[in-house]
Amino acid sequence: MKRRTGSRVPAMADVAALAKVSVPTVSRVVQGTVPVSEEKRNRVLAAIEELDYRPSAAARALAHGTSTIVGVFAAQASAYGYAATIEGIHDESRRNGWTVAVGLLDSRPDDDGTALQRALDPILTQRLVGAIVIGFDPIAFDTIEILRRRHRVVVAAGSLSDIAGIDQVHLDEYAGAYDATTSLLELGHRTVHHVAVPGSQRDTGRTGGWRAALRDAGVVDIPEPWHVSWDPATAREVALAMPADGSVTAVLCGNDEIAIGLMRGLGERGLRVPDDVSVIGFDDHPLSKMLTPSLSSVRLDFAALGARAAAVLAAGSSSPSTSAVEPRLLLRESVRSAPPR
């Protein structure tokens, strides 16, 4: 029979008092990171059960030598691609009876790694089923070596990395960018410019697919991409600084938010989309089709990416695997044939 502590939620001190141990001993048992004598450990687990102390699910998992917690690590969680990927991980994890703990990675230029470790520690002190790294930013890959020392790691990313011995699920960004660039060239545009988001891989990601399509089409002078931050305002600045000679007639943007910023800047200059400049974004943000003109985009199924990463973790294969989530090009009102010159 569970003992009640009145209306308040049981605290770690209540567990310690009932088990006749110190609070640090209870913490060590719950975290599972420091050895505790079997006799004390059993007393603590019995007290946790009796008081229904939270996180009691974690304590019961410790008692049975298993875990139900998946650690998910990402540079952010609010942007569309990140949020949709985490949602896919959560949905698939729930089907496996798991819960998801999200760690937001914190790193600064010239940081000695302390901030990154501080972001990891709250989750790494728990016993995990495994870890999923959302690898849309370089900082995410910095965590892999730390994580793989203690946990099975699955990487969910925009393109394959060269890290050996690890499960990888990726969006085929290269193919999506290649198809989008080719479609603009087929509409008669002599070249396609590119606004690149942070972390886009030169050879294997969105930038790589764009560059390869131009090269394969015989474009001799491939323009250098414009590099921006995740802030759409930086793409607006790109549009305001574009050459005024009419040489820019088609632009592939690294994501839809960047495309929106670019379109705003073009409008401020009196340039019309798509009459003067055709624009294609990436990700197929839910608002893309609501814009005027509606934004063409490469649809990436982030929820499927997250769900597949969790499924790979659940499968527990003894050998590393790789799999891709295919893109889909959606042409809307923001593209048209090249304007006459």
From TrEMBL:
Domain of life: Bacteria
SUPFAM superfamilies: lambda repressor-like DNA-binding domains, Periplasmic binding protein-like I
The keyword DNA-binding is assigned to this record: yes
The keyword rRNA-binding appears for this protein: no
The name this protein goes by in its record: LacI family transcriptional regulator
Domain HTH lacI-type as annotated: residue spans: 10-64
Record Pfam families: LacI, Peripla_BP_3
GO molecular function: DNA-binding transcription factor activity; transcription cis-regulatory region binding
Keywords: DNA-binding, Transcription, Transcription regulation
